[in-house]
Please model this.
Amino acid sequence: MSFFEKMKGGSQSPSVVSLSEIIWSWLGAFLGITPVAFLNYNIFYGNDLVYIIGSFGASAVLIYGAVRSPLAQPRNLVGGHLVSAVIGVIAYKLFYPFPWFASSFAVATAIAAMHATKTLHPPGGATALIAVIGSEKIHALGFWYILVPVGVGVVIMLIVALIVNNLAKNRRYPEFWY
Model:
């Protein structure tokens, strides 16, 4: 198969998702983001702590909408975010005068590290990138970024995923822990 033939893709389309699955996905995402956003906007608003980052939205898609995906499992959710947060903070600290390089280095290294640790979680790439391109509030956190917002946020979302995804008769979460 040639290089360009590969780009044609296959003939298979994604399967239809049931209304029940859509409702459970919505409920999980709503209940998973709510406590993290509430902490950010109501409890810690106005101080230097940040509890919500953009990559949590992408994690919500996986852990509430694609619960059977290997990329949505607890090991990947928690490990992928934490590994990527560490790499993102280090990349920023080492290369902050060159944000274009720090950004590329953070994402590429996070992907490699997640592969090596069997914690691949696509939103982890965004977590690494946010550590580099985030606001001064994010940069001021330094290595605390790994704990708050990343660590606390993913643990809250994981707890909600464990509860909501197992309330539905046709869902089971996780598929595996390790």
